[in-house]
Each structure stands twice: as structure tokens, then as C-alpha cells.
Amino acid sequence: MSNIPAAEAPRSLTDPRVLVPLGLFALYVIWGSTYLGIRFALESYPPFLLAGIRFLCAGVALYGFLRLRGMAPPTPRQWRNAAFTGLLLLGFGNGLVCFAEERVSSGIAAVAVASMPLFAALFSGMYGEWPNRRESLGLAIGFAGVIVLNLGSSLSGSRTGALALLVAAMCWAFGSVWSRRQDMPPGPMNTAAQMLSASIALLVVGFIGGEHLPTHPTTRATLAVVYLAVFGSIVAFSAYLYVLKRARPAVATSYAYVNPPVAVLFGVLLAGEHVGPYDLTGMAIILFGVAVITLAKQKRKS
User: Quick one: how many helices (H) and strands (E) in the chain?
Assistant: First the structure.
């Protein structure tokens, strides 16, 4: 028999106390990098077809892999719920972000998308799950940090693009809250079903809207699509759905505050962008807000 006390026993890699922090780390880093990935991909691919191709390739690959491994397909009810959630999260949420990034500055995009946790808190409250005081404080600090982060930006852009980002944030937030209370496909099959469902809607919108696939896409744009499909879709979206089921909404959606500074850092490293004092101050405030949310979660469980 082991002499290690139960309280000190090493945690299994399948333990949510291990996987939730790992999932959050993936969301913070990978989804922070997808802003730059979308920017590169839009050099050759139109926005809705870009999102549709990304999720179609990722969804087919993941669904085929899971079926070969013997995982049962979703039930009709689960397909319905996955289709509705995928339409909200990936169709409206990601599709409108791709649409907006052709029209607005990265500053407006960061501020608008970072409003998503606030919408999530509001929609969660409609189901009786209001954030506690410390989580509310962390949400407010995080949003303030995003505003500071973008004070040095031009914040120029079209009203259409800004409105699209706001609708994207609202749809993503409602879809996240709604799906927590529904019969969804198990594990990664949920990811595959949502991506397949959303890809159909995005491709239809793209073709009806007059978009065309590029005949000679640049290598960088195509590599960006591959990165978005593999890491942004399969890896990070799977991590998000896992965290969403096992953490409070304020924690699960905290990535929206961390993604803007991560996006800035990737822009500096890979696109030659510059970091100013507002950027550094905003990053520090955002990280402090996330720390408040995390500590609130830990205190609530103790």
C-alpha cells in the first residue's frame, strides 16, 4: 500500500484540476494567436469561406477519427443541440469576427470580443448563476485592462464591423451558457458535431454572398488556414468545451481578456508590430483581472 497521504497523492492527467488549467493555457495562447492567423489567411481567402473551410476540414478529420476509434455518433437530439450551439459559437461568433477583421482595427476587435465574458455573466444570471463579487470585480478589471490596452490604437473602423463584433460576442456568450444545460455529444464528438454543423452554414452564407475560393492563394495564407483548423479549431475549441463544462462561466470565458495581450505579443514577434506603454499597462491590468477571477474560483471551492 502506498505511504503517500491521500491529500498529497499525485494528480492524474485526467483529473479536471489538471486538465482545466491546461485547457485555459491552450485557450490563452492558441486563441490569442488566431487573431494574427485570421489576418494572414484573409490575404487570400474571403471571410465566411475561410471560416467554413477551416471548420469543415477540422470537423471531418475529427469526426472520422472518432468514428474509427469506435465512438458512437451523436443522437438526433444531440445533433440538434450541437448544430444550434455551433451556429452561435462558430457560425456567428467566429464567422463575424473574420468578417469584421476586414473592416475594423485590431483595437476595436479586441475591445468588442472582450465584452463576451460580460454577456456570458448576464446570460448565466438569467439561469440563476450570477458571478460572485470577486468574479464580478475580476471581470470589470479585465475589461478595463482591454480598454487601456487599446488607448494607444487608432480605433478606426466601420460601424458595420464594430457591430458585427458585438453580435459575435453576444452569440458566443449565449451559446456557451445555453449549451451547458443541454444534452450535448460526449467529449470531442461535441467539437466535431459543432464544427460540421457550423461549416455548412458558413459555406452557404459565403457562396450566397458572392465569395469565391482563391485560385492562387499565398503560401502564408494557406498555412494560416491549416493552423487555424488544427490548433485553433480542434485543439483549442475542444479545450474550451471541456473547460466550459467543468468551470464557472467567469473562469471559462476569461480567455477573452488574455487573448488581446497575447495577440499583441504575437504581432510583435511575427508581424513587426510595436508595443507601447499603453500596451504594457493594459496587459498587466488584464492579467491581474484574470488572477482575481481565478482566486475567486479557488476560494469558492474551499
Answer: 14, 0
| φ, ψ for residue 157, nearest 5 deg | 165, 175
pLDDT above 70 (res 11): no
Above pLDDT 70, what percent of the chain? 87
Q: Is 104 helix (H, G, I), strand (E, B) or coil?
A: strand
Handedness of CA 123, 129, 135, 137 (dihedral sign): positive
Q: Can you state the angle between helices 133-149 and 255-271, rounded to 10 degrees?
A: 30
CB 86 within 8 A of CB 195: yes
CA distance 262 to 138: 18
Q: Which of 28, 92, 53, 48 is nearest to 224 (CA)?
A: 53
DSSP letter for each residue of 197-262:
HHHHHHHHHHHHTT----SS--HHHHHHHHHIIIIIIIIHHHHHHHHHHHS-HHHHTTHHHHHHHH
Q: Which sign does the torsion angle of CA 188, 89, 255, 292 carry?
A: negative
Q: Is the pLDDT of residue 49 over 80?
A: yes
Give the angle 109-111-112 at the CA atoms, nearest 5°: 65
Instruction: Give 210: exposed, middle or buried? Use CB within 10 Å, 0-12, 13-18, 19+.
Output: exposed
Closest CA to 258 of 276, 240, 233, 235: 240
Task: Kindly report which listed range (63-67, 78-82, 146-150, 177-181) carries the lowest average pLDDT score.
Answer: 146-150
What is the DSSP secondary structure assignment for residue 272, as one 8-state letter? -
Q: How far apart are CA 172 and CA 273, in angstroms?
A: 29
